[in-house]
Amino acid sequence: MTTAKQIGAIYGLGTKCGLYEKGNPRDNLHNFVWQLTQKLRISELTTDEAVRVIRHLKDYHRTMTTDPNEPVPPDGAGGLTTKQQIAKAFGLTYELQGLDTEPSAATAKQRLAGVMHKVLGVTVDLRGDIFKGITFEQGDKIIEQLKRYVRSAKRRRKTKTEGVS
Q1: Cα(68)–Cα(163) distance, rounded to whole angstroms?
Q2: pLDDT in tens, the chain (165 residues)
Q3: 0.85 cut: is pTM over it?
Q4: What's CA 114's distance to the chain center, in Å?
């Protein structure tokens, strides 16, 4: 179970990030925790889940507190995902759909959300922007995993067509 120190850290970071509203169990902090863990109450988190929530809150706080006058590293490194990363991720997802041997009922957005869940351990809300709160580094991880999936699908397709000849 989560320690009192971890609970305090989560609420403290949530307050710093502007996510916590005292007395509101459906505030943005609890939504943030739910996206990562599927737990409605912070006190129900396991120690490992609390560590993951704290790490993500620290990353989120870091992106919020960067100095706007400070030069931005190239390609938005250190911040949130760029439009180019999002376009690349969707492009790879569509490419992967084109390589499917059997059609899937899942949309590109649903598939991408599945990759995000597998790679980052984050559950996203499909009704909105699935990249909301995803950092530049996390975007890179998603893209690299999608590239691996595409390479694997191409190899499978090549092996299948060579076996038919």
Answers
A1: 57
A2: 889 999 999 999 888 888 888 888 888 888 888 888 888 899 999 999 999 899 888 888 777 766 555 555 554 445 788 989 999 999 999 898 888 888 788 888 999 999 999 999 988 888 888 888 888 999 999 999 999 999 998 998 888 777 665
A3: no
A4: 10
Q: Three-state DSSP class for 80?
A: strand
Question: What gap in Å lies between CA 114 and CA 20, rounded to an integer?
Answer: 28
Q: Is residue 157 left, alpha or beta, with left meaning phi > 0 and alpha meaning psi from -120 to 50? A: alpha
Alpha-carbon distances, residue 109 vs 75, 78, 105, 106, 127 (angstroms): 23, 24, 12, 8, 10
Assigned token pair, 143: 């893209």
The amino acid present at 2, given as its one-letter code, is T
Please state, in angstroms and rounded to a whole number, the distance separating the CA atoms of residues 69 and 122.
Answer: 31
According to DSSP, residue 105 is labeled S
d(CA 132, CA 18): 16
